[in-house]
């Protein structure tokens, strides 16, 4: 993906051709080994990092003139700070082995922003390099060293620039599980998939034996075509195909899970149980608890009565007992990781207005 982006973006390719150490990491453009002078008048090297704006398979005009930097505060040859580019001192984790310590701000002449990333990154590299060369004439960021691509096993088919723009790439990586299972791809499971598909989970396993019918189109994300509805695909195949243009690793299983095949869940790191039939849940939940797999059971009742709910093995055991025409209130403890949290849910009879559910 990074190689394709560089090949399709003249500004990135120009940086490579000029000999800069160019890398794309977690939606950021990185120029490694940029020389600068520290407060002790020694030449050091750091990396310039910019949020990357992309339009499909090529770069767009940079939306900000600011860059981040992984080194110390840069100085001139006398060890005096460079106030003209000083912006913020703020530690930002781009990923595990790339942490920015500060940011620079230097607007181009005219104040209209940089036209492309070659203009932007070379402008900052030149500012730092000029002072480094005053001490070491051979100091240069144009090392012509090759940065090995890290995209051989990419999850997304294009760069996640939403996380980089929000500054949450390090947080997003916490969601990078090996796999997640979604059991049931109806009106709930399909929306769970829509959210999980945009996280760096390596594999998303879909389990459902039902077909995708016309009514499903009105209770799930997206908009299928008439031709797709006429084909009556299996839900799991329909959803796998819908997200295939965006990411790899969506694996469909076109069968329902019951006691005879629940062993297929072994190895899952987390599971969302999104089935609405109460009688279908016990073998699933029992197997998940037996295997010690954490999960969330998403309960949607057809009436205001709740039949049952059981938390995962990592939650404290809790069960919501059926409530009929009389108001029933139950307070259940949540996971040990959230010891002070509790949920209060009130269900009233069908003849009265259901109360608001609230968390605290």
Structural description of this entry:
- The protein is an alpha+beta fold.
- It has two domains: 2-166, no CATH class; 174-359, NAD(P)-binding Rossmann-like Domain (Rossmann fold).
- The protein has nine helices and 18 strands.
- The chain has helices at 2-8, 10-17, 117-133, 161-166, 169-172, 189-196, 226-231, 235-243, 281-291, and strands at 21-25, 28-37, 43-51, 54-55, 58-59, 66-69, 86-88, 92-95, 98-100, 102-105, 179-183, 203-207, 250-253, 271-273, 295-297, 328-333, 342-347, 358-359.
- It has a six-stranded antiparallel sheet with strand order 1-2-3-6-10-7. Strands 13-12-11-14-15 form a five-stranded parallel sheet, with helices on both faces.
- A hairpin with a 2-residue loop joins strand 1 (21-25) and strand 2.
- Helix 1 packs across helix 2 and helix 2 (10-17) runs parallel beside helix 3 (117-133).
- The radius of gyration is 27 Å and the shape is elongated.
- Mean pLDDT is 82; it is low at 300-360.
Query: In total, how many domains does the architecture comprise?
Result: 2
Spatial order of strands in the largest sheet: 1-2-3-6-10-7
Q: What is the third-level CATH name, the topology of the largest domain?
A: Rossmann fold
Strand content: 15-25%
In round numbers, the mean pLDDT is: 82
Instruction: Supply the CATH superfamily name of the largest domain.
Output: NAD(P)-binding Rossmann-like Domain
Order of helices and strands: HHEEEEEEEEEEHHHEHEHHEEHEEEE
Overall body shape? elongated
Radius of gyration computed on alpha carbons: 27 Å
Biggest sheet record: 6 strands, antiparallel
Q: Ends: how far apart?
A: 43 Å
CATH class of the largest domain: Alpha Beta
Number of helices: 9
**Level-2 CATH architecture of the largest domain:** 3-Layer(aba) Sandwich
Percent in helix: 10-25%
Q: Residue ranges: pLDDT <50 for 5 or more in a row?
A: 300-360
In total, the number of strands is 18
């Amino acid at each position: 993906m990074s190689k394709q982006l560089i090949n399709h973006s003249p500004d990135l390719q120009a940086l490579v051709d000029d000999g800069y150490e160019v890398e794309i990491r977690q939606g950021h453009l990185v120029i490694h080994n940029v020389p600068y002078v520290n407060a002790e008048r020694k030449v050091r090297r750091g990396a310039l990092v910019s949020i990357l704006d992309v339009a499909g398979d090529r770069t767009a005009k940079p939306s900000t003139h600011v860059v981040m930097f992984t080194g110390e505060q840069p100085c001139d040859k006398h060890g005096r700070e460079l106030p003209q580019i000083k912006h913020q001192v703020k530690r930002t984790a781009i990923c595990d082995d790339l942490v920015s310590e500060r940011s620079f701000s230097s607007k181009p002449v005219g104040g209209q922003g940089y036209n492309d990333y070659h203009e932007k990154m070379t402008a900052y590299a030149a500012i730092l390099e000029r002072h480094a060369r005053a001490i070491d004439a051979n100091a240069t960021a144009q090392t012509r060293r090759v940065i090995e691509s890290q995209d051989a096993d990419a999850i997304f088919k294009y760069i996640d620039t939403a996380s980089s723009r929000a500054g949450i790439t390090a947080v997003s990586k916490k969601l990078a599980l090996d796999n997640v299972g979604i059991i049931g791809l109806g009106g709930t499971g399909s929306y769970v998939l829509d959210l999980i598909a945009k996280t760096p989970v390596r594999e998303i396993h879909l389990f459902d034996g039902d077909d995708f019918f016309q009514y499903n189109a009105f209770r799930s994300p997206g908009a299928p075509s008439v031709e797709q509805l006429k084909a009556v695909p299996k839900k799991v195949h329909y959803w796998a195909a819908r997200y295939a243009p965006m990411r790899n690793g969506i694996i469909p299983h076109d069968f329902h899970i019951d006691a005879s095949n629940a062993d297929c869940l072994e190895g899952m790191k987390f599971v969302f149980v999104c089935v609405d039939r109460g009688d279908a849940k016990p073998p699933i939940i029992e197997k998940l608890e037996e295997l010690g797999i954490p999960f969330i059971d998403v309960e949607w009742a057809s009436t205001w009565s709740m039949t049952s709910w059981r938390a995962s093995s990592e939650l404290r055991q809790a069960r919501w007992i059926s409530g009929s025409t009389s108001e029933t209130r139950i307070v259940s403890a949540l996971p040990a990781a959230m010891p002070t949290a509790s949920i209060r849910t009130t269900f009233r009879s069908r003849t009265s207005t259901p109360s608001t559910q609230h968390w605290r």
